[in-house]
Amino acid sequence: MSSSGATPNTAEIPLPAGVTLEQLQNVQAHLIRIAITTSAAFSVIVWDYFIQLQSELALYRAKDKNIWKAPVTWWFIILRYSGIIAALPALFFTATQDGFCQVPVSASSAGAVLTVASSGAIFWYRVRALWSGSKFVSGVAGFFYVAMVACWIAVSTQFRGDTGTHTPYLSNCQLHPVAPWAPMSYGSSVAFDTCVLVFTLAKFHGRLSASKSGVGRRVYNDNLLYFFLTTAANITVLSIQAQPNPKFDFIKPAAVPFSTLMTVTMGTRVFLNLRLFDQRQQQSQATQNAHSLVSDSVGQPIAFNSGMKEHGQYEETDVDRPSSEKAPVGMV
């Protein structure tokens, strides 16, 4: 009596549209790198969240409630949490088994849009403040900002993910190939960041050294550094995302979390820089008012420093105070 051979165990693996079995196997082989980079970026975002927590709590404890009437304050709060919304769901479709892959994909995409929108709004307010509310600067930067947000929304609607069979490790989510025009989201970010950076450089090119204020120079230099790092990060990611060579397909997802990381960390610092800038202007205005009162009382005009009018927002306003009474230098 002959015995029939044992039937081998087989499993059907559903493939996303347009994806071959070989491509799926390659994705699984490289998924470990994507999971590591996503986890690393998320860890840094959370670490930075706690680093800046005192600054956020200071807003809630501030006696001046007018700060909550400024839209930029609310954009700061949105930015504080949108980075986590963008990075945390990414862990589920890159490093864990998931039964509803489209949910974290959509949540991460929404978080990315909120991150870009809130950070961009803070950048816009910052460069607008540098130019004292110039309509031309506000209009040009605003145009690039609206175009950037529109591009990110359009691209975010294209992200799709299917739930595959359980795998021995990492994620069972199968991400669909993104549209060939998807890099335009990073291209729009580069255009906006470059616009802001150029306006910032144009405002004080060759003139900042004339200011005697160490605080003013630090405010400007920090602000310029944040703009530069954000622009450089988005240019790097864009150069990777725009590569047509298929060998870069597995690097592209690994580069995305670092763009989110730079956008969140630099955006929050630009807001704090903006607050310090506003405080310096208020101190300068208060000093000028005090000088005016003294002038009226003695009947003689006050001779201001020759650079005060041109660089008023960066002029040292407490140079005559004892060192123990001077305002601290640093971020708020």
TrEMBL record:
Region (Disordered), start-end ranges: 312-332
Transmembrane segments: 31-51, 72-93, 105-124, 136-155, 184-202, 223-242, 254-272
Entry keyword Membrane: yes
Keywords per UniProt: Membrane, Transmembrane, Transmembrane helix
Superkingdom of this protein's organism: Eukaryota
Ranges annotated as biased composition (Basic and acidic residues): 312-324
The name this protein goes by in its record: Uncharacterized protein
